[in-house]
Amino acid sequence: MDSTGRKLECVLAGNKRRCDGKVPTLTIVKVFKNAKKIIFGGFATKTWAGNDGEARAPGSFLYSLRNNDDLTAFKAPLINENDEWAISRYSVDGPTFGGGELFIPNNAVSNPNTQADFGTRYQPPHGYTANQPNTKSLLAGSSDFLPSEVEVLYLN
């Protein structure tokens, strides 16, 4: 948001380079799956700029506003706040959380390699565990998906 309270958008559909140096960022992913509108994403406390590789980002989290299982909105914090894989910063990719628990490739709306499969680094809601079918499909309807829209916003 700028000083007037408006959000500032730095990415539409995957070019996160425009977000480099911006902190914090909020990634919003929208998916239409089986007549459902699903909305989820991640919040990163560390910049996407830097050397290619993983980074600690205490306070980062994944979230869901609308999900495949119709659960109420939830926040999925890091299981370990000092996790070295909280975010991944690779210049050829879009926002990546947890080493791929939420992976947004560049040009995501035309790239079927987008993934949402969490539970190892980010805590899923009660009753969901890593590597289980219900957890793999919770955020986006399936672990591999094609988003209809991706935005990354930052606070100024």
Strand runs, count: 12
* Whole-number mean pLDDT: 88
Structural class: mainly beta
Shape: globular
Task: Explain what this protein looks like in three dimensions.
- It is a single chain.
- This protein is mainly beta and 156 residues long.
- The protein has one domain (9-154).
- The protein contains one helix and twelve strands, in the order ββββββββββαββ.
- It has one helix at residues 133-138; strands spanning 8-12, 25-33, 36-44, 53-55, 61-66, 74-77, 87-89, 93-97, 102-105, 114-116, 144-145, 149-154.
- Strands 1-12-2-3-5-6 form a six-stranded antiparallel sheet, with no helix packed on it. The protein has a six-stranded antiparallel sheet with strand order 4-7-8-9-10-11.
- The longest helix has 6 residues, at 133-138.
- The protein is globular.
- Residues 17-152 form the TLDc domain.
- InterPro entries: TLDc_dom.
- This is TLDc domain-containing protein.
Summary keywords:
6-stranded antiparallel β-sheet; mainly beta; 1 helix; 12 strands; 38% strand; 156 residues; single chain; disordered N terminus
Quick recap:
This protein has 156 residues and is mostly beta strands.
Secondary-structure topology with pairs:
Layout: E1 8-12, E2 25-33, E3 36-44, E4 53-55, E5 61-66, E6 74-77, E7 87-89, E8 93-97, E9 102-105, E10 114-116, H1 133-138, E11 144-145, E12 149-154
Antiparallel strand pairs: 1-12, 2-3, 2-12, 3-5, 4-7, 5-6, 7-8, 8-9, 9-10, 10-11
Pfam family, one: TLD
Domain TLDc: 17-152
Organism: Paramuricea clavata (Red gorgonian)
